Every structure is written in C-alpha cells, then in structure tokens.
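Long-time lurker, finally posting.

We've been working with 1-alkyl-2-acetylglycerophosphocholine esterase (Trichoplax adhaerens) and I want a structural starting point before designing mutants. I don't trust myself to interpret raw outputs, so I'm hoping someone here can both generate the structure tokens and explain anything notable. Sequence follows.
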Amino acid sequence: MPFNCSTWTFDLPNPTGPYDVGITEVMWGNRDGCLFDIFYPTLPSHKLDEYNYKSWLPEPQKEYFESIAKAPLELKTNAVEEWISSMIFDRMRAKVYADAPLASNDDYSTSSQFNLNSMPVLVCSHGLGCHRAMLSNLCSEFASYGYVVASLDHRDGSACYTYYINEEGKRVDVPFKFLKTNGDYEDRNRQVNQRASECSMVVDFLNKLQNGEPVKNLSKTNFDLGQFENRLIMSSVGIFGHSFGGATTATVLVKDHRFSCGIALDPWMFPVDHDLHHNFNKPFYVLNAHSFSWPHNITQIQRFMDKDNTENADRKLFTIRETCHIDLTDFPLLLPYFLANQTTKVGNLDPSLKGAVSNKICFDFFEKYLCCTECNRYRGGNINVLDYAFEGTNVEVAGHENDGKELDVLKLIFW
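Top reply, 14 upvotes:
Generated this for you. Predicted structure of 1-alkyl-2-acetylglycerophosphocholine esterase:
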C-alpha cells in the first residue's frame, strides 16, 4: 500500500526499473519561457544518503495545493476541509531524489544496464486543472529504465496554478483560467497551440544541454545541468499527455518534426485544429478510460487512427476496463483507495493494476520507436494487458458522431 502509517506519508510506488530516479526543476526564461521538471536515472540509493525524496506537490506548495483543490471546479471549501486536505497533500511523496547526480554506466552493474551515455527523451503534458507532477509515476517509471523525461507546467491558463520569475526576480502567479469546457472552441484551440509551443520550447532547451551550450536556470537548485551534455538522443523525441495533454500530444506530433511518436492518455480532443488529422503521419497510441468515452470525443480520436494516407503507421486505441478519467494520473496510487474514492471519481480496477497496464503499454510503445527494440525489458510485472484492456472503444459511434459535442466534460471527470 502507498500509505505508510509509521511515517504518515502517501507515497507513489517504487519505480520498477534497474535505476533509482532523480529529479530537478528548470525555469528557462521569464513570462514567455517554460517551467518543467526533469526526471533522470541517478546513483544507486545507497549512495544517496544526503538526498531526500521529493514532495509530490511542487513549490510553492501552498499555492499549488489551494489551486488544485479548487480548479477547475471553483470548489468552495471550509477551514476544516482545507486543513485535512493540506495535511494529505503535504505528505505525498514521489520516489525520486531531489537534485541527485545523473548516473553513469559505471555506477551500476553491467547486468542492469541500458546505455546511460545515450538516453532517449520524452516530454510530458498535464491535463486541465492539473500541474507538472500529475503523471510522476509514469515519468519516474521511464527514468528508472534510462529515459530522460521533461514534465512541464503549461502557462496557457489550463494548469491549476503555475508561475514565472520576472526580470526583477519576483514571482508572478499564473492562475487557472476559468472557461466553459466545451463551450468556446477558439479559446481552447489557442490554449492547445500555446501548449504545443511550450513542449517545443522544452526540446529547444534540452538540445542546448545536449550541445553543451550555456543556459540559465532561474530555479533555485544545485543540480549541474551540464551533466546532460552529449548524453541525450535528440534526433527522435517522444511525447505523452493526459486529457488536455492528450490533445497537446496530437498537436505537437503534427507541428514539430522533432517529435516522432506519442501516446494520448484519455485525451480530450475538443481543442485540436479541425483539420489536424489530415497531416498526421506518426505512430500514435490512445489509452482511454472506460467511463471517459462519448461519441463526439471518440469520433475525433478515430480520425487520428485513419491509416489510409500513411504507410506502416502504427495507430491503436485501447480502452482500459473499470477505469475513469482520473485513474490515468497519480491520484489513485498516492491515496488509499477509500480516500481516493471520497476525493474524486475512481474506477473499480485496483490502482496498482491501472498503473501497471498503462505503464506497460506506454513502455513497449516508446521502446519500439525511440529505442528501436521490441525486447521485453520491462520489469513491472508479467501482465497481459489484454486481460484488463481491449483494442477499440466501448462506445457506439455510427449515427451518434455529434452526441456530447457540448458535453460538460468536468462531470465525467469528477462525478
């Protein structure tokens, strides 16, 4: 269980790969820059006595907590509810070491090694009303197998909260922007295109690290970013995202040639350009939660599954049984099942199985397209994903393509 009574913490599971995982924060530029965490393989845990696990909630924790508790629903909570919730959020931890050194091949036995001098790169995009730590389980899982993963806070107003440092060195808050979910396509489309640009900006930054170019990190950290020089595979970058981040994933794959493949976790496709699928020609998987499915959204997803104009395109839509939208984030893993069920809507499938199924599908996909191998290197359990998921959808689409076009998506997410 992730809940530890003796230390009163709510922990994400340990990553299953051969490497322990480090994390550092990067803020590059001011208002028009980007803020993201980098997950990476670090030294074995017995060499990390001076480093601590990172709190799941980013700093400044008070602002992130208050925002994620209220956005995007504009919830009103009383003082007792806020105190209980703050106690819980304050004790959530990711199993990653803050600012620990980047590992080298010499730090681990040859039997456990991938090549840490040539690490594949992934970018992670969060959903509506969330933040950059919302998929920490999946990010740390990849890092434990030798990947470098950059997970960003979006500044388009879709994050529950984020911030930047201005030219005077002062923090400027970027609050959640309240909009109707499916009501204003123009606003949401502007947001998804800004999000895509921010993902590209992260790749610009990582390219500079790879090339040994000087960069200025405005975040307060002692981590030496120069450790990444000549150790990243930047010729082919992958991307994954949840909900609004799924729409961002599809957009990025069309608009930035440096991204070669992607996975959308329960995507909310309303914001994407109407003709985006016409230019779509890259490997793309979609993982849908069983309850977060309605005809209009599935119709938009299926447009990206069309292989008629693309040779050898690998496109698949999976539906994971007994799951809801929030199940593909960290929440069911961080909180005991009974508590998660009181906090937000959670499906019936065991939380550890939800994570294992989605992690396995994602890992095999990126291994194939970024590492060019179909060897079974995943250690997260010998599970058959088709015991818990099926290819295709549980929704009847024919004749119902516009059903749910104006649906209040938040009701599917939270109730």
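Before you design anything, note these points.
The CA atoms of residues 190 and 271 lie 8 Å apart.
The chain is about 30% helix and 20% strand.
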